[in-house]
Design a protein that fits this description.
The complex is a heterodimer of chains A (256) and B (351). By secondary structure, chain A is of the alpha/beta class. Chain A is built from 10 helices and 10 strands. Chain B is mostly helical and 351 residues long. Chain B has a single domain, classed as ABC transporter involved in vitamin B12 uptake, BtuC (Orthogonal Bundle), CATH 1.10.3470. In chain B, 70% of the residues lie in helices and 0% in strands. The chains are: A alpha/beta (256), B mainly alpha (351). Chains A and B meet through α2, α3, α4, α5 and α6 of A and α7, α8, α9, α10 and α14 of B.
């Protein structure tokens, strides 16, 4: 079992954002979380990655309890994520964006950095080489010295995934990877997600609104509505689940 | 296009090319450092320039240390600390007490570097304490915290009679000499640059850009904030120690909010997130303030006016987020190019 969430509940003041969320994730799976706006999907990601501390329940990653840990510790354990609205370090170069994500692999002390002694130079070289190699894998090495805010939208999305990969995750959380991408590019994106999954031997949880994408690549789905899990199962089962149709797909059902 | 504009453009581009060539030539930097160091001995020895100007040059050095160290927090980390004079006060008082009460008076000259080191460490220790609120608060709220810190330091000193209370400490030995100012200024700028171009420094930048994303990209933001505050306050303490032994008199009033404001002006005048900017800002501010002394009270009007116009037309200061090439480690500049040519990346220590 890679990730196990047990009756996770989270309140914002009096509002119950997520209630009794359960998830058993095996290594290598690709699971989708869907649901209407405000259903608590992103909150689930924030709970897993430690941005919020779950009010109740437990989340275990490879038998390590995540609730109560700081986000950087959780990331160092092997969980990386992207964001619904791109959150790159805008004023920094593409290379620096990726190098920052190698913070947990840094092997030198602040004193060595201050005086450029000891392991500093060999480590900086290693970090730079790793970052450039990663950018090459993502076909972005030619943009290494560009400021990330100057990249076109599609490349910014790709850089965000590359940056997440620089933390060397086992589990990748993708928050609406298709947001802002035109429908014709969905197929490319699906291939891209499958490709990084194989390339880096990843387990993926995906939040998405685009039904074509979700139905196309997810092996298993969970449907949230008002914080509660209303259905889960194979994509085909979900498509025909009356509860889901009512809560979420009802208005869009014709498209399926 | 008439001949005159063509000529003007040629002239401009020639200057530009020459400037590029100078900036490209990294061998000039060590030469400049050696020449500067020799000059710092020669100038006071042979009175090459009059002592008043010497004094101003030393103040420029101290202010460069203050501005670069504050820039680490305000410019690179994007927080807003307004209590830098508080750290300076800790350094100044520690150093002054060491040379006047602790160290034997016949040895204070030899122990001066140690004095400054301890002054910096004392300030760094205080910086460690101030860094802790920065875990939870940021922006305006952290500004209030640092403001309060500055006021606390001032009133604590005012209320301890043993260290002179509100009257301060007069008659401190003048131990700050030009070579020492030069040495500490270069050390401060060098260390700060090394830190910024390390992965810790990139962590500092990522906090400015997006703290949550930075946390989620495995950056230990608490560690980074602690480091930034400790390093910044260490050098503020160093500057304080040098300042006390140059002015030869310190009192709590010297280190009030106005002093902190002066340092802020230097940072924002020169440009946030830029070492070259801080050096420029500190130099311009110090020299201008002295040059305008004949204007009396009017200079207190001129300086804010200058700042207002600067903020209107160049909100990021003279160098905002840009850097002079000499201050960027050479491997940072050529590594990508070399990597693309499939050569080995050079050693990070190459400059």
């Amino acid at each position: 079992m890679l990730l196990q969430a047990k009756s996770v509940t989270h309140y914002f003041g009096g509002l119950c954002a997520v209630s009794d969320f359960n998830l058993d994730l095996e290594e290598g799976e690709l699971v989708g979380i869907i649901g209407p706006n405000g259903a608590g999907k992103t909150t689930v990601f924030n709970l897993i990655t430690g941005v919020y501390r779950a009010t109740q329940g437990s989340i275990r990653f490879r038998d390590v309890e995540l609730v109560g840990k700081r986000p950087n510790e959780i990331t160092a354990l092997g969980i990386a994520r992207t964001f619904q609205n791109i959150r790159l370090f805008k004023e920094l170069t593409v290379l620096d964006n990726v190098r920052i994500a190698a913070y947990n692999q840094m092997q030198y002390s602040p004193v060595e950095a201050l005086f450029q002694i000891g392991r500093y130079s060999s480590e900086e070289k290693r970090i730079l080489n790793n970052a450039m190699e990663l950018l090459e894998v993502f076909k972005m090495d030619s943009y290494a010295d560009e400021l990330s805010k100057n990249l076109p939208y599609g490349l910014q999305r790709r850089l965000e995934i590359a940056r997440a990969m620089a933390t060397r995750p086992k589990l990748l959380l993708l928050d609406e990877p298709a947001a802002g991408i035109n429908p014709n590019e969905i197929k490319q994106l699906m291939e891209f997600i499958q490709w990084i999954r194989q390339q880096f031997d990843l387990t993926i949880i995906l939040i998405e609104h685009q039904m074509r994408l979700v139905m196309g690549i997810c092996e298993r789905l969970k449907v949230l509505d008002f914080g509660a899990t209303i259905a889960e199962g194979l994509p085909l089962e979900i498509q025909n689940n009356p509860k889901v149709l009512e809560a979420y797909l009802g208005e869009e059902g014709g498209e399926l | 296009m008439d001949a005159q504009t063509v000529e003007k453009r040629n002239w401009r581009s020639r200057i530009g090319q020459r400037w590029d060539a100078i900036a490209e030539n990294r061998r000039i930097l060590p030469v400049l450092l050696v020449v500067g160091f020799l000059l710092s001995f020669a100038i006071p020895q042979f009175t090459l320039i009059n002592p008043y100007y010497q004094l101003i040059i030393m103040y420029v050095g101290i202010n460069i240390i203050l501005a670069t160290s504050l820039n680490l927090i305000n410019g690179y980390m994007g927080e807003f600390s307004v209590g830098h004079a508080g750290f300076m006060a800790v350094g100044a008082y520690t150093a002054a007490l060491l040379t006047m009460k602790v160290f034997p008076s016949n040895l204070v000259g030899y122990l001066f570097p140690l004095t400054i080191l301890i002054a910096g460490s004392a300030a760094a220790l205080v910086g460690l304490v101030v860094a802790i609120p920065s875990f939870k608060t940021r922006g305006d709220y952290l500004a209030i915290v640092t403001l309060a810190f500055n006021m606390i330091v001032k009133s604590v000193i005012e209320n301890i009679e043993a260290i002179g209370g509100p009257r301060g400490i007069p008659g401190i030995d003048r131990l700050t000499t030009m070579p020492w100012v030069f040495f500490w200024t270069v050390l401060a700028v060098w260390c700060m640059r090394n830190f910024i171009y390390s992965n810790f420094g990139r962590g500092v930048l990522s906090i400015r850009e997006d703290e949550i994303a930075s946390d989620l990209m495995s950056v230990n933001t608490r560690q980074v904030k602690l480091l930034a505050f400790v390093i910044s306050s260490f050098f503020a303490g160093v500057a304080g120690g040098l300042f006390a032994h140059l002015l030869q008199f310190i009192s709590p009033r010297v280190f009030d909010i106005l002093k902190s404001t002066d340092i802020l002006i230097m940072v924002y005048l020169g440009g946030i997130g830029s070492i070259a900017g801080s050096i420029l800002g500190a130099t311009i501010f110090t020299v201008l303030l002295e040059a305008l002394r004949p204007l009396g009270y009017y200079r207190m009007i001129l300086m804010p006016l200058l700042l207002i116009f600067l903020m209107l037309y160049r909100p990021r200061g003279i160098m905002g987020l840009r850097e002079f090439r000499w201050f960027i480690p050479s491997y940072e500049q050529i590594a990508i190019r070399l990597w693309r040519q499939k050569k080995e990346v050079p050693d990070a220590s190459a400059g």
